[in-house]
Every structure is written in C-alpha cells, then in structure tokens.
Write a structure and sequence with these properties.
Elements lengths: L1 E2 L2 E2 L11 H16 L9 E6 L3 H18 L3 E5 H7 L8 E9 L2 E10 L2 E4 L4 E3 L1 H7 L4 E4 L2 H4 L8 E3 L9 H13 L18 H7 L1
Parallel strand pairs: 3-4, 5-9, 9-10
Antiparallel strand pairs: 1-2, 5-6, 6-7, 6-8
Helix pairs in contact: 1-2
Length: 208
C-alpha cells in the first residue's frame, strides 16, 4: 500500500505455498496494516513480469478481478524495473536487474540511475548466462538471484547485491504504481497479459 510516494504497509510471504490460496489473504493483511478500507483504494498496481508463469497469471487475474469489481484503474509494473529500484544505486550508476529464468536462461534488463530515478537502457530479455555476462561491463551494479545460480555473472568491478536483502518488493510496485496512476496512466483490462518475455514450456512443446 502506498500514498503520496510513501509505502504505508507491505506484507511479505517467503514460504512455498499455493499462490492462489495465499495472495488474497496477503492483500487483506496489507490493507489492515495500512488501516485502509476497500472504499479508500483509488487504484491498483501489479507486477507484470517476467517471472514465474503461474505466479504471474494468478497475480494478474486477482488484480484484474479486483479492478473489474471495484471499477478501479490498474497499472502494470515491469518486475525487473521494480527490482532495479531496490538497488538504490548512485546517480550515473548502471544497474542490471537479473533473475534466474531456469532452463539455463536469465531474465535481464539494465537501467541507469539518475537524480530523478531510473532510465531504462535495455528491454526485458531472456538470455543465456554467458551472453549476459559478456554484456555487463564494469563498473556496474547487479541485483537479483541469477548470480547465485550462475557465478559467471560475478565479475571484477561489478558489485552484486545479496538477493536475501535486495529482492522484488510489493512496496516498490505500489509506490511506482501510485506515481503512474497520479500521472493518468492506466491499462485496458481486457487485453492486459503478463510479460512472459519467452515462450512457455507448453508452447515450446507444441512448436516442437
């Protein structure tokens, strides 16, 4: 929950549980933590991907359902962009947000930290770890869980932030969403889909 660029409440669930079963209770807990009722909610933000295919579908379906039912505007927030905001780099610093995509790939995007926030340098992509490693030039800041899975992403002159303390946060998504809603941005609910970046295993099997 966020208001006027301030995070009012954030609820984090780290245990491995069913997304569909736990997410609604987390939403209720966030509202209670902020002392906010549904009648005070002015809009919604959702992490749109890339990431877990199942998690993205469930999260977006819930957000769209709430938006439809409450007549609320909804804005999508790219997951890698939200992750890059957690890096809190210095102005001028290049930030790479990198997540383990499994199947020997990583999701990656790079940004430049400015006095006003973040400026995107590259689109969200799914890459082989060695291809990404060749693109990361020192000095740079890397945030995400991919370096734990692929140590080759750890290079001289590249600062890697620990994923345990620097990871995607709902509070960041809410704060970015509040800014975009305030500027008049909103998504058309019907055609809004997760940003998968790459084809799913089922799609690849069908093509094969």
């Amino acid at each position: 929950m966020a208001r006027d660029d301030v995070v009012l409440s954030e609820v984090v669930e780290t245990a491995t549980r069913s997304h569909g079963g736990v997410v609604p209770s987390l939403v209720r807990a966030a509202l209670e933590g902020a002392g906010v009722g549904w009648d005070e909610v002015e809009g919604l933000a959702v992490s749109i991907g890339p990431g877990s295919f199942t998690g993205l579908r469930i999260g977006l379906a819930l957000a769209k359902g709430i938006a439809y039912a409450g007549g609320l505007p909804l804005v999508p927030i790219p997951t890698l962009e939200a992750l890059a905001w957690a890096a809190e780099g210095a102005p001028g610093e290049v930030v790479w947000a990198v997540l383990d995509a499994r199947m020997r790939e990583v999701y990656a995007a790079s940004f430049t930290r400015t006095a006003a926030g973040l400026e995107r340098r590259t689109p969200d992509e799914a890459l082989a770890p060695d291809v990404l490693a060749a693109r990361i030039a020192a000095p740079a800041l890397v945030i995400g869980d991919a370096p734990d899975a692929y140590p080759g992403l750890r290079k001289d002159g590249v600062r890697v932030l620990p994923f345990a303390t620097h990871h995607p946060r709902g509070g960041i998504v809410a704060r970015l969403g509040a800014r975009r809603l305030a500027s008049g941005e909103r998504a058309e609910l019907g055609p809004l889909e997760p940003a998968y970046v790459r084809a799913s295993q089922a799609e690849l099997a069908r093509r094969g």
